Amino acid sequence: MSKAVVGVLKAAEASIKKSPSSARKRAVSLFKTMSVAHVDDEVIIDEEGSHTEKIFSNGDIYIGQWATDNYPHGNGKYLWPDGCMYNGEWCRGRIVGKGRFSWPSGATYEGQFKNSYMDGEGTFTGSLMDSYKGSWVMNRKQGKGTMSYANGDRYEGEWKRGFNDGQGKYHWNNGHQYIGQWKNGKMNGNGTMIWANGNRYDGCWEEGLPKGNGTFHWQDGSFYTGVWSQDQKEQSGKFYPANSINPHEDWDPSQLFSVDMGDCLVCEGENISDFPSDKVFLWSSGDEKPPPRKNSSSRMSVDGSSRSVIFRKSLKTTLQPAKRQGETICKGHKNYELMLNLQLGIRHAVGRPAPTKSLKLKPTAFDTRQKLWTKFPPEGSKNTPPHQSCEFKWKDYCPLVFRTLRKLFNVDPADYMISICGNDALRELSSPGKSGSFFYLTHDDKYMIKTMKKSEVKVLKRMLPAYYDHVKSFENTLVTKFFGLHCVKLSGPIQKKVRFVIMGNLLCTEVPIHKRYDLKGSSHGRITDKPETEIDANTTLKDLDLKFIFRLRKDWFEEFCSQVNKDCDFLEQERIMDYSLLVGISFKESNRGAVEGGAELDGPGTTPKLSTDTSVVLNPARWAPVRLGINMPSRVELTVRSNETQLIGEPTGEFSDVVLFFGIIDILQDYDISKKLEHAYKSFQYDATSISAVDPKVYSKRFKDFMFRVFADDS
């Protein structure tokens, strides 16, 4: 069998190298013609007991070094029936170290791997012979690297999450070149474009085109300088000839966009459809089994009890995806008419023509003193449609600001209206929040609508200019994203006003959220008062319920610390306190670690196994972009407290692979007189450092200190 395995492996390798277009079919046919025995009958171990050749029941082949704990460890080759192959280093059953991964298309990656991800320095060569050589982070180009495209173009510079991002130089095969700043794969910021004929543009760029102040130079010394934009209404400038007789005086600035930029399209490169981290390994009898953790069953907790006993006490339920939250607002619901009013008003507000596309706003855009109300009679009017609800009045606060914020957050107006104002009803969460506000969710879970007290509206209006500048400056900010601020005045003798804000739903994702936490870094009252039997995936747990340390890879942890510092500085300057970090945890389906509150034990002393009812394989690199706080693959380490009031427990060395979602919420509580009185009152009864109502400066420091302990570098 040893010779047969080697023969099949070599034949498959040769078939992949021969012709990329038909390699997959040949590789699969090789497997189909083989006689496959049970894996236990195929093990051939050399004299040192470290070399093995296996054909698994599904057709996978492995040849290489094998640990006594029954998983690859050392150097080895693995071939899948679809024609993909890995040849390189393994560590405890995972692809770690240097290696080469090849696809049936003929594409290859050669370089460093971490935890089965392309991670570190490496070279990807596509099936069309475009190639990238440089730094990788979790299957994505990140850091410095050089991309050579199949058409002859070349980019040298910085990358972020798979896109040209930072400082870089792009050479076109026709001789043009751009040197400057990039963002999300497009020229953005300050940069210089030099055409092959010697003409050049120096100035500002946005979304791949000149935008803002800049100068266009001709080779003869003439130049045109001013403000540039595709929108001719925004464009202005002046022409300066090099001499009295100049052929460029009749030149139209719009030619820069329609002609000169026409030959400067940026290539995207070949997409990878199947990552090494997507692959499943079958180590024993066809069952996926990651390597066991050393001494996991014999570790002692801080109180001296056995680890397995702690597991049996705390791991009673299986992890299930959260059921859809809230009650659908149907006809007859007490807030049915309010929902209709809200949808009508938003459709009216968002559907109006946009006055500008620029992200630069004048101070007048933030003026909240205007008292303009729009009347919505049931029979309709010149500006409003007929409807089946009661008569109401509608007010938009700072519409231009929020329209620009939606553009900044890449929200498509049509999708926004469909989410909130489509045929589907909103859902009302079962109980109001601590402030008495009600929450509504859109049918697709993308947006959350919160009713607001007048004091909260005042805070948001006051901080709106600073908030706009902050989110514009820091694209990875963790603070809540606001999309609109509105008010409905109901008809009748009372003329009740309902104010509400529309926010992004941080935990809107296709993968199941198994645990959610609201963390502030304080201990007084920061524990869930529900019985354990009533806690489910929709229950928001608090600081003293937390039994994890969140471990992020080094670069993500550094970015997390930097952004938390910036966000807290902003909130402190705006005199905001009582905010919290909302964290959602999705445990990986393939995980077999000790998962607090979400695993089942096969028997005494065995490793807990994660159980879910979802078929979704959680690989963030496949289903969504990874951003700070969004779709972040990481690990959680189980902790154990020595007493009930200990804010962060002692780490146990038990890890689980997860995907994290997190962001800073509840940022509209300023330190007003009521909070000062609350602080003074509670300080007499409790430790002043344990309560939530403290001065913003103190709150910010405590919040950061806590976050930098509960989040850690997974080096």
TrEMBL record:
It comes from the Eukaryota. GO terms for molecular function: 1-phosphatidylinositol-4-phosphate 5-kinase activity; ATP binding. One of its GO terms (cellular component) is plasma membrane. Its EC number is 2.7.1.68. SUPFAM superfamilies: Histone H3 K4-specific methyltransferase SET7/9 N-terminal domain, SAICAR synthase-like. Keywords: ATP-binding, Kinase, Nucleotide-binding, Repeat, Transferase. Residues 332-711 form the PIPK domain. It catalyses: a 1,2-diacyl-sn-glycero-3-phospho-(1D-myo-inositol 4-phosphate) + ATP = a 1,2-diacyl-sn-glycero-3-phospho-(1D-myo-inositol-4,5-bisphosphate) + ADP + H(+). GO terms for biological process: phosphatidylinositol phosphate biosynthetic process. Residues 283-307 are annotated as: Disordered. CDD domains: PIPKc_AtPIP5K_like. It is an enzyme of class 2 (transferase). Residues 297-307 have a biased composition (Low complexity). This is Phosphatidylinositol 4-phosphate 5-kinase. It comes from Helianthus annuus (Common sunflower).
